[in-house]
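Hello forum,

I keep getting stuck at the same step: I have a sequence, I want structure tokens, and every attempt I make locally crashes halfway through. Rather than fight my setup again tonight, could one of you with a working pipeline run this one for me? It's a single chain of 366 residues.
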Amino acid sequence: MLLTIVIIVILIGVYVLFMKVYPVFGRRPSEGDIRRFSQSPQYAQNKFENPVPAMMNMSFRTTLGILRDMIKGSPNRRPKSPLPMERPQFNVNGDTSVTWFGHSASLLIIDGKALLLDPMFGRTPSPFPWIGKNRYSGGIPFEIAELPQIDAVILSHDHYDHLDYGSIMKIKHKVKRFFVPLGVGAHLIRWGVPAAKIEEHDWWEEISFEGLDLACTPANHFSGRSTNDRGATLWCSWVIKGESSSIFFSGDSGYTPHFKQIGDKYGPFDLTLMECGQYDERWADIHLMPEETVQAHLDVKGKVMMPIHWGAFTLAIHDWNDPVARAAKASETKGVKMVTPPIGQTIIIKGSDVQSYPKTNWWVQA
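Reply #2:
Ran it on my machine without issues. Output:
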């Protein structure tokens, strides 16, 4: 009995030490941070919460069903061959442009400023990136060293498929500023990003940055990078407005009235980057179903929609191209203009003239 207790204590000690030493997990907010967060309307009972409770049906029976579905799998949960990629254009002058790198990672060039959105460039979204299957494209369509000087990295939350330790370590030296929701700055500071480069924001806070107007806006989701830090940091969407263009980046979210509130306050948007993928009816409160993606685009008063959060990793049970296929069908039904550039293709934002955007259903043949 005594030996068993000793072994359990040792295992717990090793686990606690590993959680503290392994940098990928990031860092929990300090006591001073927590006192600061207590002023946020989103913070209650020592954690951030959604105003619309995010109900996830995770009963024992449901969990068994999810495990069964994941083990059973589907031949189309991953593409049969690596997805096609194109070489991006890193020209920071001239027209507003956007380049999608798969999942939610994008480079936005607006008013001559280069903004990286949720730059996850790693092989797999995991605290142990050497485990698991590689991204669908096999990699990214450029060398990170080729990136231009980045004026700002904009993060939506701290999940591994959006905030990647390896990617931040490779780009941090060429980033002027990091804009993040409350609490996420602690991760970056642990990874060597100077605190002076980091701005943390709550929902509805507005920021002026080198001629751009940014706003940290709501999302219905959650956060966490380890076993005991759920809700320790905030999650959000972002409004990005320049002289020539207006962009909405949804982050991860379930469908709630916050999209209409954002549209009423900040719309219309020339382009929306809308979450579309990794969904399931069992967790529909924290991820948009494809038809909801289209409706959320309409709610924020978007002109052209680009679906994101798909095309890189298998994090749900649906077919890999089901998100874009369903979104395309819903867009046609509702008269929404949708663009689906291949990974790496740089597109110029040209208002609502969707005919001027390159558009191929490359995901049908992939």
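The first strand starts at residue 43 and ends at 44. If your local run keeps crashing, start a new thread with the error log.
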